[in-house]
């Protein structure tokens, strides 16, 4: 049973829904009269992206990019691999990069630099979770859902070794699952 691997729930389905609505309201206000392009960083952000997008009321487009740097561990390898690039051109567009979590910052510092070089009209970062204690690369955040402690979290799109993405809440994984203490 998946539930047995969860130490405690950090954010319930209801809390996530409320916070996602608040972020969407900020974006709706900031992008009034514009047509942003939301870029989902796969795979982790797919659930957040789907929920956020349905609460966006300004006209928008979406695209997906897939990157990976964690493999089967709980610490960043530091090697960011692009496994799928965007389908569309972003030059001159107002883009919003949608991420599930900002942790070491390795993924986003690499990705944002790469996207900036493609000359979007503007670029903002929207991350559901921010784990500042683990940061090794500085990244500027425009929209942040929750600041979290230095714990490995799963659910609502976030995985450990590709599992638990289907949990409707965000929970702290028991350290014994990944061979840590406890
Ligand atoms: O700030 P960082 O330390 O780089 O960590 C954050 C990134 O790591 C995870 O992706 P992962 O590489 O595990 O791929 P996934 O999205 O497919 O799970 C997560 O979804 C973020 O993209
Ligand atoms: O805490 C985390 N959980 C899942 N994936 C992650 N990628 C970076 N940090 C995390
Ligand atoms: Mg992952």
List the helices and strands and how they pair.
Blueprint: E1 6-11, H1 13-30, E2 37-42, H2 46-53, E3 61-68, E4 81-84, E5 94-102, H3 106-116, E6 122-130, E7 143-147, E8 153-154, E9 170-173
Parallel strand pairs: 2-3, 2-5, 5-6, 6-7
Antiparallel strand pairs: 1-9, 3-4, 8-9
Helix pairs in contact: 1-2
Organism: Pseudoflavonifractor capillosus ATCC 29799
Keywords: Cytoplasm, Glycosyltransferase, Magnesium, Metal-binding, Nucleotide-binding, Purine salvage, Transferase
Protein name: Hypoxanthine phosphoribosyltransferase
Structure characterization notes:
The protein has 182 residues and is α/β, with parallel strands linked by helices. The protein has a single domain, classed as Rossmann fold (3-Layer(aba) Sandwich). The chain has three helices and nine strands. The chain has helices spanning 13-30, 46-53, 106-116, and strands at 6-11, 37-42, 61-68, 81-84, 94-102, 122-130, 143-147, 153-154, 170-173. The strands form two sheets. The protein has a six-stranded mixed beta sheet, sandwiched between helices. Strands 1-9-8 form a three-stranded antiparallel beta sheet. Strand 5 (94-102), helix 3 and strand 6 (122-130) form a beta-alpha-beta unit. Helix 1 (13-30) packs across helix 2. The protein starts with 5 loop residues before the first strand and ends in a 9-residue tail after the last strand. The model has no long low-confidence stretch (mean pLDDT 95). 1-O-pyrophosphono-5-O-phosphono-alpha-D-ribofuranose (PRP) binds next to strand 5 and helix 3. Its main location: cytoplasm. Residues 15-160 form the Phosphoribosyltransferase domain.
């Amino acid at each position: 049973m998946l539930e047995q691997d969860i130490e405690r729930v950090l954010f319930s389905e209801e809390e996530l829904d409320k916070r996602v609505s608040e972020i969407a309201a900020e974006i709706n206000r900031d992008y009034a009269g514009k047509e942003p392009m939301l870029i989902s960083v796969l795979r982790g952000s797919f659930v957040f992206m789907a929920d956020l997008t349905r609460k966006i009321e300004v006209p928008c487009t979406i695209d997906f990019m897939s990157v990976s740097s964690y493999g089967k561990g709980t610490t960043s390898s530091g090697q960011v691999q692009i496994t799928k690039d965007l389908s569309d051109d972003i030059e001159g567009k107002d883009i919003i990069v949608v991420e599930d979590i900002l942790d070491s910052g390795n993924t986003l510092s690499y990705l944002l630099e790469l996207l900036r070089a493609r000359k979007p009209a503007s670029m903002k970062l929207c991350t559901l979770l921010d784990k500042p204690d683990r940061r090794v690369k500085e990244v500027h955040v425009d929209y942040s859902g929750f600041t979290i402690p230095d714990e490995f979290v799963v659910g609502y799109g976030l995985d450990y070794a590709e599992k638990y993405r289907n949990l409707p809440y965000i929970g702290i994984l028991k350290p014994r699952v990944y061979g840590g203490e406890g």
